[in-house]
Amino acid sequence: MRNAKQRRRPFSVRFHILTFGCQMNVADGDWLTQSLVSRGWTETAESDAQVYVVTTCSVREKPEQKVYSLLGRLKAYVDRDPDVFVAVGGCVAQQIGEEFWNRFPFVRLVFGTDGTAMVPQALERLVADPALRVSLLDFLDHYPEREQPEGGAVQAQAFVNIMQGCDNFCTYCIVPFTRGRQKSRAAGAVVAECEALMQRGARELTLLGQNVNSYGQDKHGDGTSFADLLGRIAAIPGLLRLKFTTSHPKDIAPEVVTAFGALPSLCPQLHLPVQSGSDAVLKAMGRKYTRARYLQTVRDLRQACPHIALTTDIIVGFPGETVRDFEDTLELMREVGFESSFSFKYSDRPGVRAEKMDFKVPEEEKARRLAILQELQDRMTLESLAAQVGSETDVLVEGQSRMQDGEHVFWRGRDGGGRIVNFSSPAPDLTGRMVRVRIVDAKKHSLTGEIRGEPW
Ligand code: 5AD
Ligand code: SF4
Prior knowledge:
By secondary structure, the protein is α/β, with parallel strands linked by helices. It has helices spanning 2-8, 23-38, 63-80, 91-96, 99-103, 119-128, 175-179, 187-199, 226-234, 254-262, 279-285, 291-304, 323-336, 363-386; strands spanning 14-19, 42-43, 51-56, 85-90, 107-111, 134-136, 157-161, 163-164, 183-184, 204-208, 241-245, 269-271, 309-316, 340-345, 392-400, 410-414, 420-424, 434-442, 447-452. The protein has 3 domains: 14-136, Methylthiotransferase, N-terminal domain (Rossmann fold), CATH 3.40.50.12160; 157-386, tm_1862 like domain (pyruvate-formate lyase- activating enzyme, Alpha-Beta Horseshoe), CATH 3.80.30.20; 392-452, CATH 2.40.50. Helix 13 packs parallel to helix 14 (363-386). Residues 1-10 have low confidence and may be disordered.
């Protein structure tokens, strides 16, 4: 009975989105949610959905297995109601493609990142026609603009894609194969989306792309450089905070470095993946910068913005990495004093150049190096958090803290450097507000503060 009803009213459908991977996938999931809701669909709990959208990641480890085990879980819902179906998108979908529907007949849509813009229409067609399957895996030669859902308030923190894909082909990385060539979005479209988000209540904008510093430097650019784009967005009235990720050290322009000192809303934080501190390994990775150049960029950044919080990504055990190379990485970490870092054991990805390199580092040795590196980082993180104690800072509140003591209400937000700050306040709801906080304690990964004055 319900199935027949569902076919007659195809556009009032309960959906659930499951996201793996990077911030770009998270932002894609948010856009999809808004777009489907604006079509009258309803977001619901996993156990109650009729349509599932899974966005996948293949940058490391064994992501296919993760996706397959999730699909195994979702199959239970299909067994219960045969009209239930699944859409699989993102990097694993791009790699595995239509094979998904051989193994999992209830997967009726596969889409790559360039296909995301067309997913809402495709889902509507799939609901209306149960015999249909759709594949949106083609790479496009331009940034496919997405419809901008109208109205409705948004959260204080909003994300805006400025580009898609990557042209760097670092030798370990699968992204250029799964996300295609770099395609910058027109500056006018980016600025218009930022303005619309500000009007809907955003206060902090994060610009997203695989390599934002080369924004505009592909054939789709309209002459606007990344530094120009930052300047235009920073000038939007009401914007309190501007951030961006991810940056490639070889592409960060001097104008972007000086922007950290010149644009008051540009947050004093930068995620600048170094990957290794050894010139030999950087060369084998195809990173196209040296350790010395990276360190010079860090000095330039600190000159422009003395309190900038630097974070990074590091791979240990790249093929051919010697103990000496690894020690160079540890030394570079100490020299920079990263606030925090994401560190990974090198893992082979299918089809990338490093997969075929000799002198693979044994698994136990990679694990040993990773443990040493993470212990060093934990100590440095603690030290840099401890150095904040006694200072006052502005915190943009993200919501209630996970940890509550039952007596006070604890709120969680971030300072301009991206550090997590918890503090208590009896205010009924501080989500999306800015508060002045005095830092009184440093934990392993967060700060504790006391609120000062009125939120704004
Ligand atoms: N093995 C390990 N780590 C990887 N990364 C990318 N590809 C690999 C790989 N094959 C890491 C890099 C990158 C981050 C997103 O993932 O550090 O910056
Ligand atoms: Fe991968 Fe390198 Fe492109 Fe980053 S810059 S997405 S690591 S190829």
